């Protein structure tokens, strides 16, 4: 019975899933054009991506290293999420000028705040370079030989593709290296903070509502790109001028109705759509539970500390947001995989493939070999997960790791400078205030001891057994490590780093440190990167390489098996288009979610005693007087967010959400929790992306912050 149900479910999903699943390559969008137009789009594929004329792609950027953003004015005004601008907002915030809490609005250009290190990357054009990248590659090569040749070809090609220009080139594999595309980019390095709502708007609902619908987060912030006098990228200078984009988006006040066509245009980071049942099982049932349990520990300590003082709240704001984000997503992902019988679904697909492949020698052994490799990978993967989520959970161990790496770096090399500056950054974050430091020590000690013991209890720290015979002894031992390490003596540690030259004495001092010593033993157990004969890192890499190689064959086989299907390539932080329609869903029995939320819901959630649900008096006043101006919907409500069936993932945050005419109607910022397995398995009944309604964004800028000058820069379509 169960079996029939699953088979049927797969049939259904393979037949209809294609409707909204997929993240498509802009250059090849002609292939989707007819389907997109049938779904309601009024524009053409070349309006979205064109190399000869300005097209929508010129209005979209990779924001920093992992978000998306869009130009909305002729003078380089850029919208992205609040959580994408978060660390820059935090870095400009102090307890006296707390922009994170109170918001910030530059009254004019001179007040816009430079953000060193922040970049905005525009795609100039892309090219299929498979032939050039695979030039010289033969069937008989080992994977390592192939990789070396591919790397060499990529390096040469990148140079030749950008010669004589200020562009930069990135070449990436698609379909596990069956295909390669080159991206010629323009990277802007002077990006300034223009405005941000206060946290209780930009992060309303906080980590409690994160990944959830109904949602009321005003998740946006405003930046501006600056260039030199030639409209070209330049590092920060007072003489720089606002960038004049080739294209900026029109902003529509028309809003959304259920069923409307929408598309999301941005930089999805990673999906693993084609992996086998073993990989799904490993993620859902092995890795995720470890990660979740270890993050429970860290979060409980950080959150408790955050209640103690505003300084500590600020100190832990970024780590808590990051740790909590994965923690919650993985819970949804594992549940979603279970609900979908994800492992069985994959097994069924694999049986289907095997039947087809049995008479094709090229493909007949692929799945069996993948299974064998996963059986070998699994225990190594478990070790690595414990190592990264438990052993490296504390600041102490993370900094011990930096010291260990420093000890291995060649003096004055790039790596050496990078590590030293990472240590400096962590020092200044920790030590600027004595009170923070004292509290942090206690928090970090608890995290260090508890996560370590958790790993030890399940046999993931057997190297401690020689020295300590009971948990109580181990606890004492860990406390001693914590107290004795130089890392936990702020002045002496800073002095050591200041004078560090990589001398014999320096190295001896590093080696003698009890935290570094412990780290090294733990690392060699988990990764064996430099000790012993059984080099696990190498083994792990070998196995992953072999899996990669087989996946290349497997996916090529699937494409051959189903020649009429349009297989989208997994996300890899390159520009993609996802399309679908605005739609609510049923998260569970007897519950139906509508497709949009409003300001009324913010007032409903208001709770002055809970940090995440505090509502600004000024926002409440605007709600009371219904002072929504042109931003209200037809029913007179102030819309806040909406959901749709677009296939998105991490990295898509900040992406423009566009209507049938290519106008901006929203800013993508999240997915619904019930659909967070979409990186592995997409289910049209549950997978929804969450977008900020652009009308709420404008309402906050205009009515709440009074920053009319920014609205005036935009092209608003009523
Ligand atoms: N879940 C969203 C994403 O993956 C938002 C994360 C930031 N917000 C937060 N409360 N941590 O990026
Ligand atoms: N919130 C994610 C991001 O930052 C988007 C997602 O995972 O859906 O990119």
Would you spell out the secondary-structure blueprint of this structure?
Elements: H1 2-16, H2 30-38, H3 45-48, E1 60-63, E2 67-71, E3 77-80, H4 82-91, H5 99-102, E4 104-105, E5 113-114, E6 120-128, H6 130-133, H7 143-162, E7 168-174, E8 179-188, E9 190-196, H8 199-202, H9 206-209, E10 221-227, E11 241-242, E12 251-252, E13 261-266, H10 277-306, H11 310-339, H12 342-357, H13 361-364, H14 366-391, H15 395-408, H16 414-431, H17 434-457, H18 471-484, H19 490-499, H20 504-512, H21 514-526, H22 536-561, E14 576-581, E15 585-588, E16 591-593, E17 596-598, H23 599-605, H24 617-624, E18 639-644, E19 656-658, E20 664-671, E21 689-693, H25 694-704, H26 708-713, E22 716-717
Helix pairs in contact: 1-12, 10-11, 10-12, 10-14, 10-17, 14-17, 14-21, 14-22, 15-16, 15-21, 17-18
């Amino acid at each position: 019975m169960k079996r029939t149900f699953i088979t049927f479910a797969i049939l259904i999903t393979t037949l209809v899933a294609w409707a909204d699943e997929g993240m498509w390559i802009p250059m090849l969008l002609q292939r989707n054009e007819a389907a997109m137009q049938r779904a309601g789009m009024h524009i053409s594929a070349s309006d979205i991506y064109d190399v000869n004329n300005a097209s929508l792609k010129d209005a979209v950027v990779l924001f920093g290293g992992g978000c998306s953003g869009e130009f909305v004015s002729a003078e380089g005004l850029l919208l992205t999420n609040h959580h994408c601008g978060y660390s820059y907002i935090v870095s400009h915030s102090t307890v006296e000028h707390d922009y994170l809490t109170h918001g910030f609005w530059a009254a004019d250009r001179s007040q816009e705040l430079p953000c060193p290190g922040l970049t905005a990357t525009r795609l100039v054009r892309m090219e299929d370079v498979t032939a050039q990248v695979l030039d010289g590659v033969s069937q008989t090569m080992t994977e390592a030989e192939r990789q070396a040749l591919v790397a060499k070809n990529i390096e040469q090609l990148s140079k030749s593709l950008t010669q004589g220009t200020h562009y930069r080139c990135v070449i990436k594999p698609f379909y596990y290296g069956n295909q390669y595309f080159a991206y010629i980019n323009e990277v802007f390095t002077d990006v300034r903070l223009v405005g941000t709502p206060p946290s209780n708007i930009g992060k309303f609902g906080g980590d409690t509502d994160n990944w959830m619908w109904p949602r009321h987060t005003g998740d946006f912030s405003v930046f501006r790109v600056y260039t030199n006098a030639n409209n070209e990228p330049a590092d920060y200078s007072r003489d720089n001028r606002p960038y004049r984009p080739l294209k900026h988006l029109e902003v529509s006040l028309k809003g959304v109705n259920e069923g409307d066509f929408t598309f999301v245009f941005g930089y999805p980071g990673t999906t693993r759509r084609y992996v086998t049942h073993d990989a799904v099982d490993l993620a859902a049932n092995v890795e995720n539970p470890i990660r979740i349990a270890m993050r429970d520990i860290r979060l409980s300590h950080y959150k408790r500390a955050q209640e103690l003082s505003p300084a500590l709240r600020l100190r832990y704001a970024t780590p808590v947001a990051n740790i909590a984000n994965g923690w919650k997503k993985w819970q949804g992902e594992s549940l979603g995989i279970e609900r979908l019988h994800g492992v069985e679904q994959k097994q069924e697909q694999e049986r289907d493939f095997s039947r087809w492949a049995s008479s094709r020698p090229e493909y007949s052994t692929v799945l069996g070999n993948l299974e064998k490799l996963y059986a070998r990978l699994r225990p190594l993967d478990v070790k690595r997960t414990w190592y990264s989520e438990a052993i490296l959970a504390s600041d102490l161990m993370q900094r011990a790791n930096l010291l260990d790496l420093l000890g291995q770096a060649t003096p004055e090399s790039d790596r050496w400078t990078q590590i030293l500056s990472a240590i400096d950054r962590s020092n200044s974050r920790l030590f600027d205030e004595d009170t923070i430091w004292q509290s942090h020590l206690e928090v970090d000690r608890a995290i260090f001891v508890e996560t370590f013991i958790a790993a030890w209890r399940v046999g993931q720290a057997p190297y401690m057994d020689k020295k300590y015979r009971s948990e109580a002894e181990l606890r004492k031992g860990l406390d001693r490590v914590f107290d004795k390490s130089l890392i936990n003596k702020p002045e002496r540690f800073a002095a050591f780093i200041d004078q560090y030259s990589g001398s014999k004495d320096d190295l001896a001092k590093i080696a003698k440190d009890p935290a570094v010593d412990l780290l090294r033993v733990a690392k060699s157990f988990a990764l064996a990167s430099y000790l012993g004969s059984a080099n696990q890192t190498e083994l792990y890499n070998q196995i992953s390489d072999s899996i990669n190689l087989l996946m290349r064959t497997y996916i090529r086989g699937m494409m051959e098996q189903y020649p009429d299907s349009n297989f989208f390539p997994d996300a890899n932080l390159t520009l993609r288009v996802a399309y679908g329609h605005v739609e609510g869903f049923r998260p569970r029995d007897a519950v139906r979610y509508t497709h949009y939320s409003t300001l009324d819901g913010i007032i409903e959630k208001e709770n002055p005693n809970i940090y995440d649900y505090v509502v600004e008096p000024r926002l409440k006043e605007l709600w009371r007087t219904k002072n929504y101006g042109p931003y209200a919907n037809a029913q007179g409500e102030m819309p806040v967010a909406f959901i749709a069936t677009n296939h998105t993932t991490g990295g898509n945050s900040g992406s423009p959400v566009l209507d049938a005419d290519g106008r901006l109607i929203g800013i993508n910022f999240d997915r619904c929790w019930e659909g967070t397995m979409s990186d592995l398995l997409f289910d049209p009944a549950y997978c929804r992306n969450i977008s900020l309604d652009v009308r709420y964004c404008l309402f906050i800028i205009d009515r709440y912050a009074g920053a009319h000058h920014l609205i005036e820069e935009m092209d608003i379509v009523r």
